[in-house]
Design goal:
Length: about 475
């Protein structure tokens, strides 16, 4: 199941992809990471899917990452006397804390925190932004609004407040329960919704206690404004364009996407581009040309991964969606323009010994006939630094830790291989050569670059680089040890 492309594919599981056979089919079609959406399904559902993924992993012999996506607080209005109400442009409409069913003049908004944060001039969006209201007067328990864009509000429709930072934690009581469940289950990544500030990420990290890496979803304007601090606090980022496109003008989303992707590449943290990438494939076996271009654009930007949501979770063509995304990635990455764009957008970072080592590995690989860059890693940092360089040759990450191997399934270009503990660099080179040969990336006649840290098995000690032959007899013949 050797991949012929560098970008990774995240596939969401759901009713259309809940059996062992389908999960294995999606893995073989190209899925590297499976997403469990905690907004839907019971803990028993997710436990069963987790077990099936791990069985697929065992049967195929390829590490697979599992990402649990936490729901986050959901802001919704109350109910209506007639189950819905029509409001028109220019009408006045009130949100309040009164639990009585609403009319075409008012409705309950059972979130006191919203009223505490609202100001005159703030915007309220209803039903994924289809209706827009502007606050004319507000208090601790009400907001009188002018309807700027009207429509029909029905029971429990979602409400967005894009203009203000809400005094709400990113983790609701449900999220905390889901987080603990997911960590006990053994997921590799936790995706955190409703992030507004770095403190939200730190709260999740404290609860996870190192059992899973933290990936922050950027879906609110406040998160865009505080992105540098959020990125520093996170292990990875998801550009969640659905909610981001509701709370911001849609034309703002593409440049934000580019900026966030490049920022993540600069600090060697994985970034997923997500939402509506192949939305039409929920109902159609082929995507639109615009959707293909959208996926291609994320690949040209150098994103680590692209994600399928409903396409693989609830659509009629989950396998076709994954396979099409895989085919698009292979075609784009074979385009000479792709390599030009990636090289031109590469950020050269040389502030540490590890930075120098991985930069040198890339330069050597490009200047010679090197087939593979192999790196030994405990935490995954060395492999991530190598991936930041976006080399033209494959990257093999060798690690004795299964959790590290799985988490690296989200990192651009990295193929994870499990290895035993290594105490001498000679044996590290031997293990790297074997991995390169068995994966079909090199032959005995080829050479590879091997990076590692001495002493071994200590995170953050990358300090050695060697160009080595793939033939073990030559390694032992030329090694001075």
């Amino acid at each position: 199941m050797k991949r012929s492309r560098n970008i990774k594919i995240v596939a969401t599981l759901g009713p259309a992809s809940s059996t062992y056979d389908m999960i294995r089919t999606l893995s073989e079609a190209g899925a590297d990471v499976f997403r469990l959406n905690m907004s839907h399904g019971s803990h028993d559902d997710h436990r069963e899917r987790h077990a099936q993924i791990r069985q697929v992993e065992k049967d195929t012999g390829r590490p697979i990452a599992i990402l649990a996506d936490l729901q986050g607080p959901k802001l919704r209005c109350g109910t209506f006397v007639a189950e819905a109400a029509d409001i028109e442009e220019g009408d006045m409409f009130r949100f309040d804390l009164d639990p009585k069913p609403g009319t075409n003049h008012r409705v309950c908004l059972p979130h006191k925190e919203i009223f505490e944060a609202l100001e005159v001039g703030s915007t309220l969006l209803v039903n994924d932004g289809k209706m827009r209201l502007k606050v004319k007067e507000c208090g601790d328990d009400f907001a009188d609004c002018e309807v700027m864009v009207g429509g029909t509000i029905s029971d429990r429709k979602g409400v967005n407040v894009p203009d203000v930072v809400l005094p709400l934690a990113a983790l609701s009581s449900k999220d905390k329960e889901d987080l603990e469940f997911a960590c006990q289950l053994g997921v590799d990544w936790l995706a955190l919704s409703f992030v507004q500030r770095a403190a939200d990420v730190e709260e999740a990290r404290a609860l996870a206690q190192g059992r899973a890496a933290i990936l922050s979803k950027i879906e609110k304007p406040a998160a865009v404004r505080d992105f540098d601090a959020i990125l520093e606090a996170s292990d990875g980022i998801m550009v969640a364009r659905g909610d981001l496109g509701v709370e911001l003008p849609v034309q703002n989303v593409p440049p934000i996407q580019k900026r966030l992707v490049h920022s993540c590449r600069r600090v060697a943290k994985p970034v997923i581009v997500a939402t509506q990438m192949m939305e039409s494939m929920i109902e159609s076996p082929v995507p639109t040309r615009a959707e293909v271009s959208d996926v291609a654009n994320a690949i040209y930007e150098g994103a680590d991964a692209v994600m399928l949501s409903a396409e693989s979770a609830a659509g009629n063509y989950p396998r076709e969606a994954v396979a099409t995304m895989n085919d698009v990635a292979i075609e784009v990455e074979s385009d000479p323009t792709y390599r030009q764009v990636i090289n031109n957008s590469r950020h050269v970072e040389r502030t540490s010994i590890a930075d120098g080592i991985v930069s040198a590995a890339r330069e050597i690989a490009e200047a010679t006939e090197i087939k593979v860059i192999a790196c030994f890693t405990q935490s995954g940092t060395t492999a991530s630094l190598v991936a930041r360089e976006r080399p033209e040759v494959p990257i093999i990450a060798l690690t004795p830790l299964v959790g590290t191997a799985r988490r690296l399934c989200l990192t651009w270009g990295v193929q994870s291989h499990m290895t035993g503990r290594v105490d001498r660099f000679k044996m590290a080179v031997v293990a790297a050569a074997r991995a390169a040969r068995t994966s079909g990336l090199a032959t005995e006649d080829d050479q590879i670059v091997v990076t590692a840290g001495v002493p071994f098995n200590v995170p953050g000690t990358t300090n050695i680089l060697r160009v080595a032959p793939c033939a073990e007899r030559l390694i032992f013949a030329t090694d001075p040890e």
